[in-house]
Amino acid sequence: MSVNNINNFPESTKILELDKPFVLIDVGARRGFHPVFNNFNPVQKIGFEPNEQECNFLNSNKSDESERYFPVGLGSKHEERKFYNAKNPGSSGIFPPNVKYWSRFTGSNDLDLVSVDIIKTESLDSFLQKIGIKDCDFLKIDTEGFEQHIIDGGRQIITENVLGVLCEVYFNPVREGGANFGDIHNTLDAYGLSLYELSPSKICKKTYLIDKKNTIRPDSIGQLVWGDAVFLRDPMKDTESDLFQWDLDKYKKLISLYEIFNLNDCAYELVFYLEDKGLLTAIEIEALKKLFLNKSIKNKFLNYLYGNHASLLRIFPPKLRKILRKII
Questions:
Q1: Lower CB count within 10 Å: N or C terminus of the chain?
Q2: Residue 21: DSSP 8-state
Q3: Is 84 inside any structural domain?
Q4: Helix, strand, coil % over all residues of the chain, rounded to 5
Q5: Containing H/E element for 305?
Q6: pLDDT digits (tens, 9 = 90+) for 140-177
Q7: Does the CA dihedral 322-164-243-13 come out positive or negative?
Q8: Cα(20)–Cα(34) distance, rounded to whole angstroms?
Q9: Residue 288's CATH number
Q10: How many structural domains comprise the chain?
Q11: CA dist 318 to 60, 65, 130, 305, Å?
């Protein structure tokens, strides 16, 4: 999860008690779940990683029993697909690179193909029914251009249950057959999710960087190629919708999601909305208003420290990292 503006230490999760677990689904779960979601209690995390070796590694190294991974490729329907394994394993996917376009950019060899497998895909909706999962609060999708197919296959769960989606998006044809940002935006907007955050990435053209003798960062200049987009629900915007299943837990979870993505104004507005409806206690309302109007120095310091030294945490095993974050 590479959105630039993350509050890794949300405090509203300590104020708002949940009756039901926060359910996170990660499609393209290589490297595991982002630790920010461990702030929810209780939490249930479900990951999909089609590479069986990587999936076995994730299950063997999971931080606790709240998470599990499935070696399943998701798509819009049950079918066989070619899966293109790239030089950089994290860049492997169902759509091959658009060599004519992408070969002009720095780092294009990351997408060089090393082998092709045949995998079976099925829809998110059908697989969740198969394993008995009836809810999802947040969906993260990073499938190297195949995101639209995942969304199409998860239409029911997204429309009825999902509060937010973090999705990799493409602005230019890096992959053959991949959907562009506009397609993703229009689909999720139709499902009741609005765009709240966009973290675009640009890449320098290869010839320019060579002639500059690598004196600049390749992502400091160039054309926008891809990015990460955050889509969230706006309960005040969708008051007429009868598809999404709102309850008090959903409102509480949305407040914390707003805080995680540093949308303190949206969280503050939602607190007032729930106060008018009489859905929060006076103690919760007072604590939340204070929190969003005056972010603590401790919170700012911890996020600064985490943002600049997060790589140091990776030297510790996942279970120990989780303990360290709780202590902090």
A1: C
A2: P
A3: no
A4: 40, 25, 40
A5: helix 297-313
A6: 999 999 999 999 999 999 999 999 999 999 999 999 99
A7: positive
A8: 20
A9: 3.40.50.150
A10: 1
A11: 11, 12, 29, 19
